[in-house]
Amino acid sequence: MIKIYIDTNIFVNVWCKEVDNKTGKELWRGSLKILELVEENKIIGVTGLTNLMEICHLFQIRNLNFDEALNDLENLGLDIFIPDTLTMINAFKIQKTYRIYLHKQSIYSKYANTFSKN
User: Fold this and answer.
1) Domain-wise residue ranges, the chain
2) Which residues contact 14 (CB under 8 A, 6 or more apart)?
3) Quick one: pLDDT at residue 102?
4) What is the pLDDT of residues 9-59, one digit of tens each?
5) Alpha carbon separation from 94 to 83, 99, 105 (Å, rounded)
């Protein structure tokens, strides 16, 4: 069975029902199909503990109920990847090498109305 890693943006994309402002295309539908395949046990979904922490943070800064999101995630039956120290150190090195930085709370500019502070 295929195993795929599901990043935070896939979940947020579905919860926010992202639509392309220029074309009106419902972008969230593709992400939803991936999550449905996981729910139907057609593929194995894997996400990271750091993604769950990120989702929790996004909900907290917008005063949204994380319990509902957590329930959605639990019902999917995802495998949770917990990075070890070496993995986190390597990720930090990559971040520094390629200058991948986040600006304040604007980590999801696509979802500015929902998750970023104005």
Assistant:
1) 3-83
2) 28, 31, 32, 35
3) 55
4) 999 999 889 998 999 999 899 999 999 999 999 999 999 999 999 998 888
5) 15, 8, 21
DSSP string, 74-108: HHHT-EEE---HHHHHHHHHHHHHTT----TTGGG
User: Which has the closest alpha carbon to 88: 60, 45, 53, 44?
Assistant: 53
Look up residue 1 and give its DSSP letter.
-
Which strands sit side by side in the sheet containing 44-48, from one edge to the other? 3-5, 44-48, 79-81
What tokens were used for 41?
């046990």
What is the Rg, in whole angstroms, of the alpha carbon atoms belonging to the chain?
A: 15
Running DSSP on this structure, what letter comes out for residue 110?
A: G
Q: What is the 3-state secondary structure (H, E, C) of 62-78?
A: CCCCHHHHHHHHHHHCC
